[in-house]
Amino acid sequence: MASHTIVNVGYRSTNFWVVTAGRTRLLVDLGWMGMLGAMRAELQRKGIALTEITHGFATHYHLDHAGLAQELKASGMVLIITPEQLAGAAVMRQHAKPQDHHIDVVLDDAKTRVVPLASSRAFLGDIGIDGVLIHTPGHSDDSVSLLLDDGSAFTGDLTHPGFATEEDEDVVARSWQTLRDRGAKTVYPGHGSVRPL
Ligand SMILES: [Zn+2]
After folding, report:
1. What is the domain range of residue 186?
2. Phi and psi at residue 72, in whole multiples of 5°?
3. What is the CATH number of the domain that holds 9?
4. Which end of the chain is more exposed for a tag (fewer CB within 10 A), N or C?
């Protein structure tokens, strides 16, 4: 396993994680919409320039997790998105109010890589990150987790098993089981503290 570091640059009670491996800085979850200034400030507080973010991945396309996707691309970030997420990204604007200053995610520009789950290990390996993307529906159909080979799992809003409702408990339980089966040991959630799985 190549060595990497994980730093939280979250704000407004959402966690945004920077995974650094060599020259790659992968941002996991892409900020609140309209709040690029806050993202820049949080990165700076942790000694990271916005322009050092080489890649970004959203666990799902809700406005508190992917709100800055397009603006971050304009700052140089390559967006990694899976086919499962394309529909969610296309309709993200439906959750925004006009005053939110939401900027649509462009899915066919040069800064976007659509990476099928089956190719994710190879793609991530090429940028120096040993891990894989795994579809983990439950909170939303477009929820995808990043699992590093050391067991670190970035799960976004995947519902805590204890909080699943009758209607989604099966799919939530399946997603957690999949993560466990694939070697997840530590949960880096979208909200709240890092915890063992
Ligand atoms: Zn969400």
Report:
1. 5-196
2. -65, -35
3. 3.60.15.10
4. N
